[in-house]
Amino acid sequence: MIPLWAISAIGAGAVAGLAGYGLASRLGDAKLARAEAGWAQERTNAAEATTRASETARATEAAWAASAARIQTEGETRHAQLSVDADRARRAAGSLRDALDIATRALRRGTAEAPATAAECAAAYDAAGVRAELFRRADERAGILALVADSAHAAGLGCERADALDR
Fold this sequence. Notes:
By secondary structure, the chain is mainly alpha-helical.
């Protein structure tokens, strides 16, 4: 038979073991709860940092978009001013051409009115006519080239300013 003291010792050990397990289980649960609370705090901190970074990126993007819109508006204004200037130059060139036409017609009338010097005037008229036509064509080409160059310059300035936004 098993002595009573052995049964008592086994029973006491079992009770103590169960109590120890319960204590250890409660200590493990407390550690687990602290770890979970720490992880929850880390997730909260990461979410807040992500929100701040997103807001900063949105603000930066909005500033870039506003700058790009301003640059585009300035470029359109510059282009409109160039068009106005080109029209003004065309009108000035047109009035100069009109004055030249008046002078060449007067030269031609002078040739018709003085038949004795018709040969001399005809030669002068031919030279003046050729020069007038040459200058008219050169002025037309210069106006076209100036408009192209001004437009390219304005577009290049806009591109440079927009490219500077990326840096």
